[in-house]
Write a sequence for this structure.
């Protein structure tokens, strides 16, 4: 049984929603601007991962009815659960800011294959570019340095949140290579790495 099984009970969901009803405020859609009082605290990796796990559980509970938007209860329930497990004060705005940043990281990671022509290595779970290509890309896009020689942290959790129908839109490349045969990354391919390595 999942460690979040208690939250799966409908009555428990309603109790949590009522308990934090005063914190609901306006509908906190993910793309809405964050309030002025929201600060980008440096959270431990364990807390960030726990937030992603809890938000994935909220998807299973039906708290993400359309697109990339979650119901307000998803942020509130996650903040309550993470705060209880981590023994920290976590607000729904903290959850939203972390989710927004992790989605941005996932979109940048997808860009490596869809926009910059990187080759996907399923064995290493990494995008492969030549050293010269990496140097040029990092010079132009410093945020891409985090993916050089390493996989995307928490890839499986991010795929569940933003793969498939929730996949973020990647801007079209300025120039498309003619006759490129680089393999394309498919959401879920990391789980079958041995068959997609190359």
């Amino acid at each position: 049984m999942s460690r979040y099984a208690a939250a799966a009970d409908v009555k428990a969901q309603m109790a949590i929603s009522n308990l934090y009803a005063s914190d609901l405020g306006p509908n906190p859609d993910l793309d809405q601007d964050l309030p002025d009082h929201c600060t980008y605290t440096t959270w431990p990796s364990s807390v960030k991962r726990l937030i992603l796990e809890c938000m994935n559980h909220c998807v299973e509970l039906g708290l993400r009815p359309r697109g990339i938007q979650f119901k307000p209860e998803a942020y509130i329930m996650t903040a309550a659960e993470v705060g209880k497990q981590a023994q920290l004060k976590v607000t729904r705005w903290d959850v939203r800011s972390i989710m927004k940043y992790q989605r941005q990281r996932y979109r940048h990671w997808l860009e490596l294959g869809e926009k910059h022509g990187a080759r996907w290595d399923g064995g290493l779970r990494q995008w492969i570019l030549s050293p010269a290509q990496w140097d040029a890309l990092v010079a132009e896009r410093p945020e891409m340095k985090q993916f050089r020689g390493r996989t995307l942290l928490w890839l499986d959790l991010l795929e569940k949140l933003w793969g498939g129908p929730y996949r973020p839109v990647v801007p079209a490349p300025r120039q498309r290579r003619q006759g490129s045969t680089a393999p394309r990354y498919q959401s879920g391919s990391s789980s079958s790495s041995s068959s997609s390595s190359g």
Notes: The chain has a mean pLDDT of 74. Residues 5-97 form one domain. The two ends are 37 Å apart (CA to CA). The longest helix spans residues 92-114.
